[in-house]
Structure formats: structure tokens, C-alpha cells
Description:
Structural class: mainly alpha
Low-confidence stretches: 188-207, 209-214, 216-221, 249-254
Strand content: under 5%
Helix content: over 70%
Shape: rod-shaped
Radius of gyration: 79 Å
Largest sheet: none
Amino acid sequence: MDRGDRPNFNTIEEELAxxxxxxxxxxxERDTVQNExxxxxxxxxxxxxxxxxxxxxxxxxxxxxxSTNNLNQNEIDSLKLKLDTINKERDxxxxxxxxLKKEQVDFQRKIRDLEQKNDDxxxxxxxxxxxxxxxxxxxxxxxERNAMLESEIDEKETLKEKIQxxxxxxxxxxxxxxVRETIPDNERMMNGHxxxxxxxxxxxxxxxxxxxxxNVIDASLSPSSRILALNxxxxxxxxxxxQTHRKRKVFPVY
Length: 254
């Protein structure tokens, strides 16, 4: 309060009372302010405690969050490594896929080549089978022809034996004719008729076995062998007939 604002007192008592009242007023104000200050301090302390608790909680949360963050960071780093590994594996798989596609193309080409070769082999197998069948047919024909030839050879051997026998008989006939040609003329004249008849009978007797042999040969041989045998037998018969004809001229019949 300024001095100009102080009132004028008539007495000291009035001034003392005034100042007492004023002091009492200030004391009340001081008490009020002190109370307010105390309340403020108490509230501040309460707030500080609450803030400290909150700060501690927040710090705890921060530590937890930081720990979680570290864990997350570690997990992120691990995931990054895994991602890098996966990317590398993916790149490798893509390379493998490209190689597999190339191999698939090569395999398909090889399969087509093998199928073509298989078709060629099947065709060759069919041709070989047909050739084998043809060869077997020719072989069977050759076996049958060989059997026929062996049969014909056996028949020829039999024919040779028969021809040899006929040759021996013809030789004996020639010898007999030579013996008869050495008989004197008068004996021939006397016995001409008898000898002529006998020669005719002998001729028929000699030619009958030959004809019989020819019939046997004709029945048992193949056509070609039969024709050959008949030609030989016919030649023998012709020669025998010539000899008989000559003998008839030598021994005329009267």
C-alpha cells in the first residue's frame, strides 16, 4: 500500500486498530495462500507420485516394447535371412525349372526318335518275319523236294539193279546167240524150222520178263524216272529184237 493511500488517523488507537485489522487480513490471506500452497504442494506431490508411477509404468512398457522391438528386429533379421535364402532357392528352382523344361524338350525329342525307331524296328521285324516265313516255306519245299529226290535216288538205285539184271540177261542172250551162230549151215538147214520156232518162243520168254519189269518200273517210279527207265528198257528190247531178227535171217524158216 502506498503512503498516499493510508488514511488519516485521529488517534493512535485508531491507527493501531487499523493496522491490526490490516495485519489480521494479511495473516488470513497468508494462511489462505499457505493452505493453497500446501494443497498445491500436496497435489503436486500426489501428481508427482502418480507421474512417477506412470513414468515407471511407461518406462517398463518402453523396456518391454524395446525388448519386443529387439525380438521383432531379430525376427525381422531372421526373416530377412530366410527371405534371402528363399529368394536364392527360388532363383535356383527357376534355374532348375528352366533346365527341366530343356530336358523335357530333349526327352520329348528323344521319345519321338525312339517312337520312329520303334516303328522302323517293327517294320523291320515284320519284314524279317515275312522273310523267315518265306525262307521256311522255301525250306519246307526244299525238304519235300529233297525227300522226293532221295526217293528218286532210291528208285534209281533199284532201277540200276534191275537194269544190271537186264543187262546180264541181255549179255547171256547175246552169248547164246553167238553160240547158235557157230552151228554149221547144214545143221541150221535141218533144224531151221525148229530153231526158228524155238527162237520165237525164247524171244517171247526173254521179252516177257523185260515187259513185266517195265510194268513194275512204270508203277513204282516218278514220271521223269519212269520215262528214263522205259527208254532204257525199250532200247534193250529193241536191241534184243534186232538180234532176233538177225537170227531169223541166219536161220530162215521153210
